[in-house]
From TrEMBL, chains A, B:
<dbReference type="GO" id="GO:0003677">
    <property type="term" value="F:DNA binding"/>
</dbReference>
<keyword id="KW-0804">Transcription</keyword>
<dbReference type="InterPro" id="IPR002577">
    <property type="entry name" value="HTH_HxlR"/>
</dbReference>
<keyword id="KW-0238">DNA-binding</keyword>
<dbReference type="InterPro" id="IPR036390">
    <property type="entry name" value="WH_DNA-bd_sf"/>
</dbReference>
<dbReference type="Pfam" id="PF01638">
    <property type="entry name" value="HxlR"/>
</dbReference>
<keyword id="KW-0805">Transcription regulation</keyword>
<dbReference type="InterPro" id="IPR036388">
    <property type="entry name" value="WH-like_DNA-bd_sf"/>
</dbReference>
<protein>
    <submittedName>
        <fullName>Helix-turn-helix transcriptional regulator</fullName>
    </submittedName>
</protein>
<feature type="domain" description="HTH hxlR-type">
    <location>
        <begin position="11"/>
        <end position="108"/>
    </location>
</feature>
Length: 147, 147
DNA sequence: ATTGTTCGTATCACTTTGATACTAACACTT
DNA sequence: AAGTGTTAGTATCAAAGTGATACGAACAAT
């Protein structure tokens, strides 16, 4: 795709997709949230080719969702940690997961529980202002005019 | 990627991504939510090559997010409408958009308002059970054992 | 000295993509 | 009747991206 549409495009979805709009990037972020930090952990978890992984980790680092940290000087070893921007991707992951759970739910699925209450987490998107579920009320779209 | 991981993989995120894990598909769904239904509308809106668009529309239709409807017999013309599954993708779109708004927010952005209250929609993900924002409380992950 | 671990790079066949041109089936205008 | 316009694609093909595999560098451990 044309990934150079960052600041031109008024659509916030396009802008996000130009950063993490492919499946590998999203899976890396998923695994990073699950606590993985190292090249080989990602590689084994996802079965991704090392060339791909190198590129994706570099992009996510450049784009500020991950940061490299040296965890060993001898030999030099880096690990990849989530930044704030990367951590804030979690709601996206949960909504993607919620859709998959509902529409591709056959067989066994990974589950997420609230550690305090012990209840299974049911992620939904709401408008923080009105409290209404996204998609349940009519909305008005305002597209900025060009230039 | 390996797109044949539908029912094998216990991760609901992987399953969703095997259906709509590329930028074009997500942008088509965005435009479909904005009311576009026809081939040329999508093509002009996104600047996508017709070969790509044909394939993506076919995939989304096969996967049950869109459905074809004939709107003219002479000449034969089809349009693409969101199914329930497609409509339920809206929360994903809003969360992706929310991230882009927060971390790639320079310049003019499309805005969404609640038609009743007139307030700008601030999409967040919450756990419907506890009401807590996703990511603010510790959670426990349960991965099903193989076989 | 040999084996193992970790984080990659090199190579290369294969697949996907994207730009462009073109077609089919009409309607509409002159 | 001929030409123009609209819609929904298909055909072609070069360029780019992907992915499997092998290999390398820099050590640690035995």
């Amino acid at each position: 795709m044309d990934t150079e549409n960052s600041c031109e495009n008024p659509c916030p979805i396009s802008r996000s997709l130009s950063v993490a709009g492919d499946a590998w990037s999203i899976l890396i972020l998923r695994d990073a949230h699950a606590g993985l930090t190292r090249f080989d952990q990602f590689r084994k978890s996802m079965g991704i080719a090392p060339t791909m992984l190198t590129r994706r980790l570099a992009t996510l680092t450049e784009e500020g969702l991950l940061e490299k940290r040296r965890y060993s000087e001898h030999p030099p070893r880096e690990e990849y940690l989530l930044t704030d921007a990367g951590r804030d991707f979690l709601p996206v992951l949960f909504m993607i997961g919620a859709w998959g759970r509902k529409y591709r739910g056959g067989g066994k699925l990974t589950q997420f529980f609230d550690a305090e209450t012990g209840t299974e987490i049911q992620a939904i998107a709401v408008d923080e202002v009105t409290g209404a579920k996204i998609g349940t009320r009519p909305m008005r779209v305002v597209v900025p005019d060009e230039r």
